[in-house]
Amino acid sequence: MKYEDKTQRIIQAFYKVYNTLGFGFLERVYQNSLFLELKEAGFHCHAQQPIKVYYNNQQVGDYYADIVVDNSIILELKAAEALCEAHEFQLINYLKATEIEIGLLLNFGKQPEFKRKIFSNDRKNMAHG
Question: Cα dist. 23→29, 69, 100, 116 in Å?
């Protein structure tokens, strides 16, 4: 799998933050903590990175990715009771709107959970071509 080693290291950092903080904080607290943990692990990270959304070749809005790691993996963080399908579609839309192919949905809920999403650039090119 593409970036398997990186995603494993990110997931380990996610569990380290979860195990340290536990459940019940605001999403921003987890985002800031994970950002620090990833930087310490040697990753190059950007928080709240804007992603432009286009419709008929015109910009119609912006997304803000929680964390982008090494310009190759988008992290979407939640502090929800549980992950739902809408969270997954949000991440897939981020992937569709960028050249980034890999995304991780990380939930700091009552039980920590994550999902890995892939949207290949080949599929994006077909959709835009």
Answer: 11, 24, 30, 21
Q: How far apart are CA 66 and CA 28, in angstroms?
A: 9
CA dist., res. 37 & res. 121, Å (int)? 29
Instruction: Convert the pLDDT of each residue in 57-108 to its tens digit.
Output: 889 988 899 999 999 999 999 999 999 999 999 999 999 988 899 999 999 9
| Structural domains in the chain plus CATH codes | 4-128 (3.90.320.10)
Q: What distance in Å separates the CA atoms of residue 31 and residue 115, rounded to the nearest whole number?
A: 17
Say which residues have a Cβ less than 8 Å from residue 2's Cβ, sequence separation at least 6.
101, 102, 118
Please state the pTM of the whole predicted model: 0.90
- Please count the CA atoms within 13 angstroms of the CA of 86 that sit on its side-chain side: 3
